[in-house]
Design a protein that fits this description.
mainly alpha; Lysozyme; 2 domains; two-stranded antiparallel ribbon; 11 helices; Lysozyme-like_dom_sf; Transglycosylase SLT domain-containing protein; Transglycosylase_SLT_dom_1; signal
């Protein structure tokens, strides 16, 4: 009898332990599937191919796929940075896109300005590259800009864009490839030309370069993808949340201005507002002399455009940016 009791007890223990471990295993599996955080981060789907400036690039090769994947996920989850770019673009793109078209430069190069400076007209790098196109002093001078203590036209959206167009056209005449042109804008034509020869490559995307230059073109591709479908990547904006384009009254100045603060007041704006839209004015005065230009055009914002008004119909540069 004791023998049967021992056997029964042993069997019951085995069953209990089996049930315990099975239920524990199932609970562990269930817990592993349940999120422990309030939000989920999903890797962005990568397309088979993308297009930039009329050139198609397939993303089936491991390095091209992974470089694009890195930048697309970066811009997608750098929420505040990308959101701010979309807002600024509504003011800046209408200023630069017509100039790109006028100079026969693909419109997609507006994204180059975006990654160069975050569309910040005040931007200046540690290497002294300045303005939304981040032109170096020598490059600005080479392409016709005045770069000095009082006037630095690298900060002028219009004039810097025209100078950038000259660079881009010059690079395209050399390479015949817009991808190589874009990469050369970061790495320099001398570096790209030299590495194409040394590495026996035909396109800049195939070069082994420093990390910043290797990422550069793919940052443009990624930003373009998001700007063409913001909602798809989680960016929800209404028209009134975009930065409104500013309307200007151009004022041609042919004589020196000894005090720009006084000049601004006479125009009905503050000194800060004058500087905001004419950041190329680098001093508190503007001197016109035989050594300088004969005249300058200052942009004076209209009073109406300086204010946001409830219910105002803000002009949207690209309807794809807003969710209605």
């Amino acid at each position: 009898m004791k023998k049967y009791i021992v056997i029964a007890t042993s069997f019951a223990c085995v069953c209990f332990l089996g049930f315990f471990f099975l239920s524990t295993s199932e609970k562990t599996l269930e817990d592993s599937k349940n999120p422990k955080v309030l939000s989920m981060t999903t890797s962005v789907e990568i397309p088979e191919k993308v297009e930039f400036a009329g050139e198609e690039i397939k993303l089936d090769r491991y390095d091209l796929y992974e470089r694009f994947d890195r930048e697309l996920n970066s811009f997608t989850y750098l929420h505040s940075t990308t959101l701010l770019l979309l807002k600024r673009a509504n003011r800046i793109f209408p200023m630069i896109v017509p100039i790109l078209k006028e100079n026969d430069i693909p419109e997609d190069f507006k994204y180059l300005a975006a990654i160069e400076s975050m569309l910040d007209t005040r931007a200046i790098s540690s290497a002294k590259a300045a303005g939304i196109w981040q032109l170096m002093p020598a490059t600005g001078t080479q392409f016709g800009l005045e770069v000095g203590a009082e006037v630095d036209e690298r900060y002028s959206v219009e004039k810097a864009t025209r100078a950038a167009c000259k660079y881009l056209r010059s690079a395209y005449n050399k390479y015949g490839s817009w991808s190589s042109v874009a990469i050369s804008y970061n790495a320099g034509m001398g570096r790209v030309s030299g590495e194409l020869e040394k590495q026996q490559a035909e396109d800049g995307v195939d070069l082994w370069l420093v990390e910043e230059s290797s990422r550069y073109y793919f940052r443009m591709l990624a930003l373009k993808s998001i700007f063409e479908a913001p909602y798809k990547y989680g960016f929800v904006l209404s028209a009134d949340q975009l930065y409104k384009p500013i309307e200007f009254k151009p004022v041609e100045v042919t004589t020196s201005i000894p005090d720009l603060a006084t000049f601004a007041k006479e125009q009905g704006i503050s000194y800060a507002q004058l500087k905001d839209f004419n950041i190329w004015l680098r001093d508190r005065k503007l001197t016109i002399s035989p050594k300088s230009q004969n005249s300058y055009t200052l942009l004076i914002p209209t009073e109406k455009s300086l204010y946001y008004r409830k219910g105002e119909n803000i002009k949207v540069f690209d309807k794809r940016w807003i969710s209605e």
